[in-house]
Specification:
A: Serine Threonine Protein Phosphatase 5, Tetratricopeptide repeat; 74% helix; B: mainly alpha; 70% helix
């Protein structure tokens, strides 16, 4: 029998072994470490620290549950050991359970106040959790233990920087610099980076002159010359030292004439852009002269060539566009339309481009020249005509003039039937016209022309998903996933391929398979969680490698990670799905069963196959942990449908939208919808207020405002807290401008619609909600001009006529009109 | 048959590298753990990731003047002390505000925020509930 309680001290042999165990862990030699630990335990089976270490090794060798048992046992046997607490903290950290890990570390430090390793690990957790105050304190501690090491000085400076205490941060860095015995080598990258980081802090503190002075000071010691110059140019501009800024930007442009930022800087330095007022004639003159001069100096720079088109107007634009377009058509640049399309925001420019290119088409056809007056020049290559047709097809498609676009693209296809781009454009035209089925057929034709083209393969997959042909889509995308992976779809998840998941989710939503949709959307959310977690290792790495500026940028990117458009799209969709589920939970669960029953044979077989494959994998892969596999097996996302409170689930997606996407009207609209249903009227009101500041006449915002008004007014007097009611009434007085009821508010909105169909529809629906019938407004919509109507709006109107108003007569009339306006749209096709 | 683009898979493998590396090392049955030889891109990726996430030996200190360092350290300790004093003064000021449980709960409930945030918001409005509600709406 071993003694019931053993001391921590091991005999010298075992003690040496224990030390080597720690080394094994640091060098990630887990199996060796495990063997060694077991050897010690044979003699001292109750030794706490060894038990904990054994647990740690086990968890790294994919025996996590066992590992936890050993760690806990070790800790129980030796509650005052910093090693045991540290190990427990490491286990939590590996499970991303950072709050718990911090607690363990703090405990560990109680028993060993000066353990560098633990303090350092604690600081990493604190910065990961963005606990800047705690981080700052821990950094102070670290520095006081190792004052001669520059890494710890820099770490402390970063902590002050993050607290926006710029002066202290700078003082820390200066104190270290001054204590150096000798100036470091000129070519020392780490030192150079530290100096540039210091400059970054000065710049962010807003003291431009000091930043400039500092830049001059460090000039010879900085190795990253380009970013030194970029900083200088940028700060000069901020300090309004325009002449000097111009010099710097010219030099930068000389190094890279295709850099937008440099060109913009130069134009700003010349006060030619960025001013509050429009440029007058002389300034315009100057602008074009400058761009012309640069164009001559850097004839190969596309950025400079393209720039004048942005600023020119009317006749000047016609002249410049003519100059710009011809060589592009001659050379055959497929991306020409895409690169020029943003100019179309200015209506006049789109028309000018159209006139010009139509002119080219005519003269190319007649005389193989761009203009009738170019008789002296050589003939243009025959491909020029083709590219002109291609361009025009995209142009008319952009204007949603489907008929003309199709004529043009068909003519181009007769000219060159094998050009993949032409087919893709044709498919896109059909898609925009609302005929998704033809679109995918054509896109598939294009794909088959070039089976090695990943881009078109993905495009085709997307079009299939738009047609809800998931099986086909999965087969198609699988052609380009890694060949060695068993399950191509799992491979896409590993690769964090988000567009595919989003499109799948959209398709499931259309098919009302909400569980499956939510599964895909949660998968995207998980990708973002992973991306955030991935930064952890860089807290120590960047400090060690002194890549400080990039590190600070990384922290800032991670803070705003969920402002990414992919997240925005997935999150808005997820909130919508949860709202839908909340509004009709019963009806929906019936539907899900029905839709499961309706799943086609091939779909079902595929699901079965997948399940079988998974079962196989589980058998083979001892490592797989039970939790994640259960998750994978839940193909239908039952887990998400089984949630108790859909609105609470929606909050997970809504919060990042409101925090990071608050400037988007969609965020505020969704926020209001969720809060209204939760009866959190103050929050709903806040969303309405913010929404009004963004887009006061937005139809969905108006719908929400009316619903909000009605909801608050119909609440019994004692169901709202008197304080809340007081504030609500104050704020509503402002927001609703003292109207006497919702009907009046709606009438006011109607006056502002100005023929906008979406707004009119919202007004009609709300009129109905306020007790009216909305007939007059509907009449205006249905009899109105359809020329400016978009397909999306038309579908919305029709659906509303059928479902909200149940006015089948009007719906049919409207459908007839729309069939004329959108002859290809599948939605308006006769159903028989 | 379409050619499967190996290069693309490699490029994206960089992010999955730590996972892949771990799995690979598990498959090596003989205890050589990390010594397991990996070739080509994967091996390099594994190595790189070890550089990122591994422990490392403390580097020797830079060549510094101990006396000056000492001075700098004293200065920093002062700064940190002053900051703490300032902060606790501010906290004390805020802590003086008397809050009622009902007010805190109302704020937490209406704005779906934690207790700490709710209390702070109330304290910053000197305990005035209406004022707090107004401020939070404008936030």
């Amino acid at each position: 029998m071993p003694p019931a309680k053993q001391g921590r001290e091991l005999p010298s042999k075992e003690s040496a072994m224990f030390k080597s165990i720690l080394k094994f862990y640091e060098h990630k030699q887990y199996k060796k470490g495990l063997k060694q630990a077991e050897q010690i335990l044979r003699k001292f089976p109750e030794h706490g620290e060894t038990l904990a270490m054994k647990g740690l090794f086990l968890s790294h060798l994919d025996r996590k549950e066992e590992g936890y048992e050993f760690v806990k046992k070790g800790l129980r046997n030796d509650l005052t050991s910093h090693t045991c607490w540290h190990v427990y903290g490491l286990m939590h950290r590996a499970d991303k359970n950072y709050e718990e890990a911090i607690k363990c570390y703090v405990n560990a430090l109680k028993f060993d106040k000066e353990n560098m390793q633990i303090i350092r690990d604690l600081s990493l957790l604190q910065i990961q959790m963005r606990n800047y105050e705690g981080f700052n304190e821990t950094r102070h501690q670290l520095l006081s233990l190792r004052p001669t090491n520059r890494m710890y000085w820099v770490g402390l400076a970063i902590s002050y920087h993050m607290l926006q205490k710029y002066d202290t941060a700078l003082n820390v860095l200066s104190a270290f610099e001054e204590s150096l015995k000798e100036q470091p080598d000129v070519a020392d990258f780490e030192n150079s980076e530290m100096l540039m980081y210091k400059n970054m802090i000065i710049e962010e503190s807003g003291d431009n002159l000091k930043a400039l002075e500092h830049l001059e000071d460090i000039r010879t010691r900085v190795v990253d010359k380009r970013s030194w110059r970029e900083s200088k140019a940028r700060v000069l501009l901020k300090a309004n030292k325009l002449t000097e800024a111009e010099v710097e930007y010219r030099q930068l442009l000389d190094q890279n004439p295709d850099c937008h930022a440099y060109l913009e800087g130069l134009l700003r330095a010349r006060s030619l852009i960025g001013g509050s007022a429009d440029l007058d004639v002389t300034q315009m003159e100057k602008l074009f002269r400058l761009l012309n001069e640069l164009g001559n100096k850097y004839p190969r720079s596309h950025v400079i060539k393209r720039a004048p088109l942005k600023y020119a107007k009317a006749d000047k634009f016609r002249e410049l566009a003519d100059e710009y377009l011809r060589p592009m058509f001659r050379k055959g640049v497929p991306s020409l339309f895409v690169s020029i399309k943003d100019l179309y925001k200015d209506d006049g420019k789109g028309q000018i481009v159209e006139d010009l290119v139509l002119g080219y088409r005519k003269s190319l056809k007649e005389a193989q020249r761009f203009g009738e007056d170019d008789a002296l020049t050589e003939r243009e290559p025959p491909t020029a005509y083709l590219w002109v047709l291609y361009f025009l097809a995209q142009h008319y498609d952009h204007k949603r003039n489907t008929t003309t676009a199709l004529q043009l693209i068909n003519e181009a296809l007769v000219h060159t039937p094998t050009l993949v781009e032409l087919l893709m454009t044709k498919a896109r035209i059909y898609k925009h016209a609302g005929d998704e089925e033809t679109a995918v057929t054509i896109m598939n034709e294009a794909r088959e022309m070039d089976l090695q083209d990943r881009y078109i393969n993905s495009k085709c997959t997307k079009y299939m998903l738009r047609n809800d042909r998931l099986g086909e889509a999965e087969q198609t995308i699988a052609l380009f996933t890694r060949s060695e992976s068993l399950d191509p779809l799992a491979d896409l998840v590993d690769m964090q391929c988000m567009w595919f998941a989003t499109e799948c989710a959209k398709s499931y939503v259309r098919q009302e398979q909400y569980g499956r949709a939510l599964k895909k959307l949660h998968q995207i959310e998980q990708h973002f969680v992973d991306i955030y977690d991935d930064q952890f290792d860089f807290h120590s790495y960047c400090l060690r490698k002194m890549t400080l500026r990039s590190y600070v940028e990384l922290l800032r990117v991670e803070d705003k990670l969920r402002s990414h458009p992919f997240y925005f799209e997935a999150a808005t969709l997820a909130v919508q799905v949860y709202l839908e589920l909340h509004d009709k939970p019963k009806e929906h669960s019936g539907r899900e069963d029905a839709s499961n029953a309706n799943v086609s044979d091939s779909e079902r077989k595929k699901a079965e196959r997948k399940a079988r494959k998974l079962a196989l994998k589980t058998q083979n892969d001892k490592a797989a942990d039970a939790g994640s596999n259960k998750d994978k097996a839940d193909v239908n996302g039952e887990k998400y449908l089984a949630a108790d409170d859909y609105l609470e689930e929606a909050m997970r997606f809504l919060r990042p939208l409101l925090d990071l996407g608050s400037e988007r009207i969609e965020s505020q609209v969704l926020g209001c919808e969720v809060f209204l249903r939760k009866k959190k009227y103050l929050l709903a009101l806040r969303a309405l207020k913010k929404g009004t500041a963004i887009a006061p006449n937005h139809p969905d915002l108006h719908r929400n405002a009316v619903r909000f008004y009605l909801a608050v007014k119909s609440e019994p007097i004692d169901s709202i807290h008197p304080h809340v009611r007081t504030v609500l009434e104050e704020e509503m007085g402002q927001l609703f401008n003292g109207v006497k009821d919702a009907k009046e508010f709606n009438a006011k909105y109607l006056k502002n619609c100005k023929g906008n169909v979406e707004s009119l529809l919202a007004a009609a629906e709300m009129d109905r909600l306020c007790g009216g019938d909305g007939v007059e407004i509907l009449e205006e919509i249905v009899t109105g001009e359809t020329r400016d109507l978009t397909l999306e709006t038309a579908v919305k109107v029709h659906m509303s006529l059928v479902t909200t108003f149940s006015d089948l007569k009007k719906a049919d009339d409207f459908e007839l009109k729309c069939r004329e306006r959108f002859p290809l749209a599948g939605y308006f096709e006769p159903t028989d | 048959m379409p050619k499967k683009p190996a290069a693309a898979a490699q490029a994206s493998a960089a992010s999955a590298a730590p996972v892949a590396a771990q799995k690979d090392s598990q498959q090596v049955e003989e205890g050589e753990d990390q010594e397991a030889q990996q070739k080509g891109f994967k091996g390099q990726a594994t190595k790189d990731m070890q550089n990122v996430s591994g422990y490392f030996d403390e580097r020797v200190g830079d060549k510094v003047d101990e006396g000056k360092i000492g001075k700098a350290m004293t200065f920093l300790t002062d700064v940190s002390k002053k900051q703490k004093a300032q902060k606790s003064a501010r906290d004390k000021e805020l802590a003086k505000v008397v809050l009622t449980k009902e007010d805190v709960e109302l704020i937490m409930n209406e704005f779906q925020i934690g207790k700490g945030t709710a209390e702070r918001a109330l304290r910053e409005s000197k305990g005035d509930v209406l004022e707090t509600l107004r401020r939070l709406i404008a936030a």
